[in-house]
Design a protein that fits this description.
The protein is an alpha/beta fold and 329 residues long. It is 36% helix and 18% strand. Mean pLDDT is 88; it is low at 1-39. It has 14 helices and eleven strands. It has a six-stranded mixed beta sheet with strand order 2-1-3-10-4-11. The chain has helices at 57-65, 67-70, 83-92, 103-110, 161-172, 190-196, 208-214, 223-227, 240-245, 247-266, 268-278, 283-287, 303-312, 322-325, and strands at 44-50, 73-79, 97-100, 115-123, 132-136, 152-155, 181-184, 201-205, 218-221, 232-239, 293-294.
Length: 329
């Protein structure tokens, strides 16, 4: 494999500001001003925000494999806490793409901010162990969704798909979702914060979910699976301005990402190795992580259903213009 262009280092990097920390060996003097290879034959530098979670293993592994280089791109991965947090950096031009939950773009479309989803990244699993879940300590007495009523529950970003689907799951189980106190906690901080008792339960993906369960915790509910089975976990986000001003760059990135995700779905061992390296966890821990369905295809991603659910729970006043928001490349 080619030398990795991205290593996240310690998990706490997720809390750093997007403009203040990157995890790539890309030349800081280079910029992403045009798509494809430049006249000099040099790679085009592209900044991509991504969360320090297991799902990012596909991106890290594809960078190691040289897939993006083959498309003339040098990827600089910028740690982010969530897709919504990355949107200001997208709008300012500090980054060109973000890999994040689709709910951030749904909210942005309601404000006509010019944010678009150009492709999928990963879907949750419709059955079996899902890729994220609400977890609690074994002695918490929280065993089912309804038990979350009246409790303090953490999500990485408040007002997004996490707390929205948790509310729906709790209500469907007979609980009162209006009594839940949601708090914002970065995924890497979940195990320690749960152990410290600062919240009663936490929504988390692997490896952080696995850490809690491995210490005797319980899985309360997989909210995506309970509400919109197979819902997209992460999507590829950019701006309409970039799509209009530099369609070649968007086309090159899209082609590279589509190839990367297909390759990742066929090379699970490489993805797990990248997870172990970039999240600094043992290989045996990475081997036990539940991986999502990596796909560039937005069909059957459940994003329209998520928009409808957001209206039902008054997260937004009206569904977004999906023809404007979802622009599959």
């Amino acid at each position: 494999m080619k030398k990795s262009l991205a290593t996240l280092g310690v998990l706490a990097a997720a809390a750093l500001a997007l403009s203040g920390c990157t995890d790539s060996a890309a030349d800081p003097e280079s910029t992403a001003t045009s798509g494809g290879e430049e006249d000099s034959g040099e790679l085009t530098a592209v900044r991509v925000a991504a969360l320090p979670i297991a799902e990012s293993g596909a991106l890290w592994a594809a960078i190691d494999e040289g897939i993006f280089e083959d498309h003339g791109l040098e990827i600089e991965v910028v740690p982010a806490q969530g897709g919504a947090n990355a949107i200001p950096a997208l709008l300012s031009g500090d980054i060109q793409f973000a890999i994040g939950q689709p709910f951030g773009p749904i909210r942005a479309d309601a404000q006509d901010l010019g944010v678009v989803i150009v492709g999928n990244y990963a879907n949750s699993l419709a059955e079996g162990d899902d890729v994220n879940a609400v977890v609690a300590l074994g002695d918490s007495g929280i065993m089912r969704p309804a038990d979350l009523a009246g409790k303090k529950v953490s999500v990485n970003t408040i007002g997004a798909a996490g707390d929205l689907t948790i509310r729906k799951a709790v209500e469907d189980d007979g609980g009162d979702p209006s009594t839940i106190e949601f708090v914002e906690v970065a995924f890497p901080d979940v195990p320690a914060q749960l152990a410290a008792g600062t919240m009663d339960a936490a929504w988390a993906p692997d490896p952080f979910r696995g850490m809690v369960l491995g210490d005797g915790g319980v899985s309360v509910v997989a909210p995506y699976q309970a509400t919109i089975p197979g819902l997209s976990v992460l999507t590829n986000i950019t701006t309409q301005a970039l799509l209009d001003d530099d369609p070649e760059l968007v086309a090159d990135y899209s082609a590279a990402m589509a190839e990367a995700l297909e390759w990742a779905s066929e090379n699970e061992d490489a993805v797990r190795a990248a997870i172990a390296t970039n999240l600094e966890i043992p290989e045996e821990a990475a081997a036990g992580i539940t991986l999502p369905t990596f796909t560039w295809d937005l069909a059957d991603a459940g994003i329209e259903d998520l928009g409808a659910l957001a209206v039902e729970y008054a997260y937004i006043e009206a569904e977004p213009d999906f023809d404007r928001l979802l622009q599959q490349q």
